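Q: I'm writing a short methods note and want an example of a predicted protein-small molecule complex. Could you take the sequence and the SMILES for LF5ATMIK and return the bound structure as tokens? Please keep the output block clean; save any remarks for afterwards.
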Amino acid sequence: MHLEDKVALVTGAAQGIGNACAQALLEKGCKVGLVDQNTVVGNESKNNLDKQFGTQRTIFIPCDVSNEEQLKDAFKKIFEHFGRLDIVVNNAGVNNEKNWEVTVHINLISVIRGTYIGLDYMKTENGGNGGAIVNISSLAGLMPVPSQPVYCASKHGVIGFTRSIAMVSKTGKYGVRINTICPGFVNTPILQTIEKEENMGQYLIYKEELKDMMKCHGLLPPSLIAEGLIKILEDDTLNGEVMKITTKQGIHFHEYSPLPFQANKQ
Ligand SMILES: NC(=O)C1=CN([C@@H]2O[C@H](COP(=O)(O)OP(=O)(O)OC[C@H]3O[C@@H](n4cnc5c(N)ncnc54)[C@H](O)[C@@H]3O)[C@@H](O)[C@H]2O)C=CC1
Ligand SMILES: CC/C=C\C[C@H](O)/C=C/C=C\C=C\C=C\C(=O)[C@@H](O)C/C=C\CCC(=O)O
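A: Understood, no commentary inside the block.
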């Protein structure tokens, strides 16, 4: 996909990985709908981006992605404001093992919903232009993490859903490529949650082990995840892929064995 003048919607865009993705998309000439529940940081983020890219290139929509009406409304506002939608990045996520249902709701259910709403706007049979959806998972979606069982489950779910819906999109000729990114630890505010009982609950006792894991594997800069996103968007051959990003191997793809029976081959 040629990114100049395309319109992207990024959830969790106020800070961290989502913000880096918005910045990278703007650098490529996109217009970006910034979606986040944090109105204060979201507005600050838009103001900072305005200084670099001008006021017309972004719109900030306050929205809790786990609220169906708010999420639908955010898509509608961004589509109406910019007149089209080409890219959706379902990035908003939390680490909360105490209120674990919230983690499933934000990290998995909202990603599924964001994908379906995105398809409604972008798929060619609905009169859309086609496009691309990228769902942000984690290396925790590919391996067990004992101190984060529900986070881990939500991220495994994102990968299974994304690989499956990508096959549906291809066989249904939706014109929309759907991929997932699995970063290792990234230097963003979410890492601070490992210190908090309100996030970790019974697993707070493992915080030193998590810190050791981070020290061992190292922290990635958010800009590298944005680089991975741009690579996926610009390469029209990629669909149903699981991109991994690590300090040791950088941007690379997970390799799966061929399935013995695949109803809808990608
Ligand atoms: N930082 C890391 O080490 C890694 C993060 N990830 C994933 O990347 C994504 C982004 O995480 P970070 O930027 O690191 O976290 P972050 O905490 O820095 O940023 C997350 C953003 O999402 C927003 N958000 C959270 N819940 C929301 C909701 N219900 N509705 C709307 N916005 C909401 C927050 O306000 C915040 O702006 C998440 O899905 C996370 O699980 C994946 C692998 C590693
Ligand atoms: C704690 C804050 C919440 C979430 C952060 C994040 O999503 C959780 C990550 C959990 C586990 C991360 C593991 C990271 C491992 C590594 O970086 C490397 O050792 C890579 C290991 C295996 C991947 C092999 C490969 O690159 O193909």
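A: Remarks, as requested: The chain has one domain: 7-263. The CA atoms of residues 132 and 177 lie 5 Å apart.
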